[in-house]
Prior knowledge:
The protein has helices spanning 12-18, 44-59, 70-73, 101-123, 141-148, 161-171, 210-218, 235-244, 284-289, 310-323, 341-349, 362-367, 380-389, 402-412, 430-441, 445-465, 470-483; strands at residues 35-39, 63-69, 82-86, 132-136, 152-157, 186-188, 191-194, 230-231, 252-253, 297-301, 326-330, 354-357, 371-376, 393-395, 416-418. The protein is α/β, with parallel strands linked by helices and 486 residues long. It is globular, with a radius of gyration of 22 Å.
Amino acid sequence: MSFPVFPIYTSTNFHKFIHAKLPTTMTVDKSHVGHVVVLPYPSQGHINPLLQFAKRLVSKGLKATIATTHYTLSSITDASVTVEPISDGFDDHGFAQAQSEELFLESFKSNGSRTLTQLIEKHQTTKDPITCVVYDSFLPWALEVAKENGILGGPFFTNSAAVTAIFSRIHDGTLRLPLGTEDGLVVIPGVPSLDSEDLPSFLNAPASYPAYLKMKLNQFSNLKKADWIFSNTFESLESEVVKSVSDQWPAKLIGPMVPSAYLDGRIEGDKGYGASLWKPLDNGCGRWLETKPPNSVVYVSFGSMVSLTQQEMEELAWGLQESGFYYIWVVRDIERHKLPKGFLDLTTQNQEKGMVVNWCNQLEMLAYESVGCFVTHCGWNSTLEGLSLGVPMVGIPKWADQWTDAKFIADVWCVGVRAKVDRGTGIVKREEVVLCLNEVMNEGEKGLEIKKNARKWKELAKEAISEGGSSDKAIEEFVLSLKNMP
């Protein structure tokens, strides 16, 4: 699970765009209003898309309340949605307070079911009774709570449709673990042939992350009771995958759940997700980027969960330096000691060449004209952000669904390349970093094709969420069904 960061874009042209007069098509209809509780799994990479969905619902005339854990409550500050607490049993420090993933999930199920019920009951005698619960698919117990209280409910899947299709077929027995075959390939309808390096990392060794695997499979445990299923993807991006699994997983595709200012501009002031578990950086990165030529900077971020080894950090550091391109690299404070001293000296003494920062607003960075490449761990939120902003990518996936996302980035959507791991050391060497950056950043045949495809997917993402687009229609159908309830 990855944690993206939050944007407040300042570049001149984009600044004019987000402050332009907005179309009147998104005015809120106050005559019929439903009330949706939106329940995210309490990590940044899950809060972001569900909160963004809540804002979309509000923009179309519904009332939305985010139900989140006490520990994450203060991190959500968007004015358009109400935020109310429920308990995961670890109110002081959240997941860090639990001893294991399994203990946390069990505690969240028991305490969350009780406190979500209390939240629903509290609202049922008000002028805005809750009519539906949209919950993170990691929390299927929320559907049981909805049904026990006589209201509607549906899961929100935060992974790609391709990853969801894999787990859906494991759950229904079509695929069996481990997924290895004689020729090393796994064939799933609607999905290109996948080898072991393209599958979610722990499926080749199911015992390696038992709690996480159980959680992924439990997403489908009560799916037949759901009134809707939502997925953070869009039709043109994964239509073949979705068709292939529609019998088991008839999802409404409502993505990309990226702030409106970066796509259709129809939600006034929607420049950021509206939540942050992390302290944002000042605008030094933006000022630095404004001094660089178009498509000249490499932006590097592995989210908030991925931890590279010291050797991996060293190889990436010297690869960036030897590539000759400008770069901004986001390195968390707890990881900074792994950087080579000579490299840190270079960035300290000569910030003209590159910057190492402890955090920055990812969407803001990707939206700058000077950024020509995104080196990413290929978490799904980061992947959608790269696609939506039209930025070519170099994928260096580390675990879980990132491996599958990287396959699609490189070989299906063709918006980037996937760095090859050295067989001897198991890491991406500096020579490979340089090779990948040259392929993506330079004007060779492959680089030009990647840039062309990146521009294409940017337009298709915008089209999907704009008025009358496939995702917009799917959201509209859901909204109308709630507004028209007796």
